[in-house]
Amino acid sequence: MSLLVVGTIAFDSVETPYDRRDEVLGGSATHFAYAASPFEAVRLVGVVGEDFPDKHLGEFRDREIDCAGVEVAQGKTFRWGGRYEADWNTRHTLFTDLNVLETFDPKVPEQHKDTRFVFLANGTPSVQMRALEQCDKAEFVVADTMNLWIDIAKEDLLAVLQRIDGVVLNDEEARMLTGETNLIRAARATLGLGPRFVILKKGEHGAFLIGDDLHFALPAYPVDEVLDPTGAGDSFAGGFMGYLASVKNTQPHTLRRAMLYGTVTASFCVEGFSVDALAASDRSAIETRYNELASIVTL
Ligand code: AMP
Hints:
By secondary structure, the protein is α/β, with parallel strands linked by helices. The chain has one domain (3-297): Ribokinase (UDP-N-acetylmuramoyl-L-alanine:D-glutamate ligase, 3-Layer(aba) Sandwich), CATH 3.40.1190. The chain is built from eleven helices and 13 strands. It has helices spanning 28-36, 54-62, 125-134, 147-152, 154-161, 171-178, 183-191, 232-247, 252-269, 276-280, 283-296, and strands spanning 3-6, 10-15, 20-26, 42-48, 65-72, 78-84, 91-97, 117-120, 140-144, 166-170, 197-201, 207-211, 214-218. It starts with a strand and ends with a helix.
């Protein structure tokens, strides 16, 4: 089965209460692709600038992440800076330099247009839509978004929601999108906008999966030391979608199982800056944590 992601490829500058990194590899599609690649080959669609080192493209390819859909545009790669409070759940965006993203028009390569599983990672809703329109054979589509797009591109986002199977939101985004303060009501209101399921992420408190025939909740995998939560949401989605694409099944029971894979994959992401800890994990480390998490949540 095939899995495609469209989203951002970035240089991130991250400050935590304990450490910092400048200009490290990041972006919503990057984290997703690294997270999904232990499960399934990934087709990456995005844009970088002329300053993007070939080394990173080589590392993508080494992980069976196909970069045919990565455009190298004139200008600089997208840059994002963020700072975390000691509770890890509060993040301040310090800057967002769109650079080559400003004029990005996604082009899905001809050989990738038959993709069945599509993830629209965080990015401009109109870009998400243009990428989706090129995937004629898409059977299972999930999207992520953020408060910025709910704020400045809500109409475009509502159009995307009409076309997808599932959406991944954090609690604040779900409240902002629907105007409902109660999370369960916010989830139901989101279902009314189009998707058949919503995944509500609650950071270190775990995630809910809610749909007409779906009710599932999971705590986060307990991690001893968090170094950097950047990309945890994208990594959750990578584990979730990567697993589903690998088993070619999206029945409710399989979606629950995929929630465990998403949770475990995100737990690796937060143990390092950038994609360091994701890159160091493999399928067998993921399976070990999957079994631990399954035993933690089973009576
Ligand atoms: P997450 O921690 O899952 O929200 O994802 C963080 C990643 O999203 C970082 O690597 C950033 O480069 C990327 N990012 C930050 N702001 C945006 C934005 N406005 N659109 C798309 N991606 C973004």
